[in-house]
Design goal:
This is Nuclease HARBI1. This protein is mostly helical. The chain contains six helices and no strands. The radius of gyration is 14 Å and the shape is globular.
């Protein structure tokens, strides 16, 4: 399923979600596009990956989208695999990396009680 994934197909899916007039972006991510872009600007340097000669890197905004969807819904990595066409194994790494990045950049703006 994820073998036919391309950067273009992921970008197109994201654009379609943004352009949906019924507010589907906010429903899907549980935040406004403005808030999403704010978070993306904060974590972009920490979660961006380079393409290799073997594969294209998952774009940072897709990495953030996967993580936010996981945090908002608690969907299994397998379910997210079908939704984003990214392997469950890679999703498990993406979620951890993006959560660490969010924590690092927002640590002065949020308080977490343990």
């Amino acid at each position: 399923m994820h073998r036919n994934r391309t950067r273009h197909s992921m970008e197109q899916q994201f654009v379609e979600l943004i352009q949906e007039p019924s507010g589907e972006f906010e429903n899907f991510h549980r935040m406004s596009l403005t808030d999403f872009n704010y978070l993306l600007s904060k974590v972009l340097p920490l979660i961006s990956k380079q393409d290799t000669h073997l594969r294209e890197a998952i774009p940072a905004k897709i990495r953030l989208a996967v993580t936010l969807r996981f945090l908002a819904t608690g969907d299994s990595f397998k379910s997210l695999h079908y939704l984003f066409k990214i392997s469950s194994q890679l999703i498990s790494k993406i979620v951890v990396d993006v959560c660490k990045a969010l924590n690092d950049v927002l640590k002065d703006e949020i308080k977490v009680d343990v």
